[in-house]
């Protein structure tokens, strides 16, 4: 990360930051922001077509990725980069990444917000975690805000995070859900507001991506992103 506050990577942003309409579900980043080199944007081509063109959660049937990927600084030992719970809640599911049959790519950990705090409809999934303690990080166990889930699995894959509103049945950018303190951390590392990390639906439709099988294949590859997502950058350099 380059803490120079130059905002050179997002100088194209002229719109004001929107109000955080998800009422601050996330009170921490799942990874130390100072250890991050870059973050992918919501609806970018990074990670392929996810959750899939025909997924019921993809309301507008958009070919894009509805996650954020976090790539640690290359000089770090990725296996020592800690992964934290960005909210208090209950572990809803611990499973292998799709298509994997062992833990070599880590585990995907899904945490449901607490109904007491009014976040029971939200499910936050963090990918590719080398879990520290499987007895503690297991289905139906409570987890505290900031609790260590484990470490990132390694340099061969990026850490990722997805936020699902289960009532609305749609995915949201984590930057719509972080509180002001967390947003301030990202602002110190070259993310100027809540808008820049998100390629909105109208922008993506103006410059659509093309998925394999015309989007009929779940998690299909994106085949026409040949210029780093032009005109919308795939990555935010921190």
Question: Features of this protein?
Answer:
11-stranded antiparallel sheet; 6% helix; single chain; mainly beta; 11 strands; 238 residues; globular
How would you summarize this macromolecular structure in one to three sentences?
By secondary structure, the chain is mainly β. The protein has helices at 180-188, 201-206, and strands at 36-40, 68-72, 82-84, 89-95, 107-113, 122-131, 142-143, 148-152, 159-165, 170-172, 235-237. It starts with 35 loop residues before the first strand and ends with a strand.
Largest sheet: 11 strands, antiparallel
The tally of strands reads: 11
Straight-line distance between termini:
5 Å
The rough form would be described as: globular
Low-confidence stretches are: 4-22
Averaging pLDDT over every residue, what do you get?
86
Summarize the structure in words:
By secondary structure, the protein is mainly β. Strands 1, 2, 3, 4, 5, 6, 7, 8, 9, 10 and 11 form an eleven-stranded antiparallel β-sheet that branches. β5 and β6 form a beta hairpin. The longest helix has 9 residues. It is globular, with a radius of gyration of 17 Å. The N and C termini lie close together (5 Å).
């Amino acid at each position: 990360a380059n803490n120079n506050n130059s905002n050179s990577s997002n100088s194209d942003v002229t719109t004001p930051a929107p109000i955080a309409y998800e009422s601050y579900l996330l009170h921490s980043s799942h990874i130390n922001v100072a250890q991050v080199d870059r973050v992918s944007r919501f609806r970018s081509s990074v990670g392929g077509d996810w959750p899939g063109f025909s997924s019921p959660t993809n309301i507008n049937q958009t070919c894009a990725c509805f996650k954020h990927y976090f790539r640690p600084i290359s000089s770090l030992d990725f296996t020592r980069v800690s992964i934290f719970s960005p909210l208090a809640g209950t572990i809803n599911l611990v499973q292998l990444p799709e298509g994997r049959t062992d833990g070599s790519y880590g585990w995907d950990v899904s945490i449901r917000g607490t109904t007491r705090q009014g976040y029971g409809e939200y499910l936050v999934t963090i990918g590719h975690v080398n879990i520290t303690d499987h007895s503690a990080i297991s289905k139906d166990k409570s987890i505290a805000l900031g609790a260590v889930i484990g470490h990132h699995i390694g340099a061969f894959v990026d850490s990722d995070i997805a936020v699902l509103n289960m009532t609305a049945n749609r995915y949201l950018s984590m930057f719509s859900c972080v509180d002001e303190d967390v947003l301030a951390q990202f602002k110190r590392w070259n993310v100027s507001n809540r808008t820049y990390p998100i390629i909105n639906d109208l922008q993506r439709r103006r410059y659509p991506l093309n998925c394999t099988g015309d989007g009929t294949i779940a998690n299909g590859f994106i085949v026409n992103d040949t210029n780093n997502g032009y005109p919308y950058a795939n990555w935010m350099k921190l």
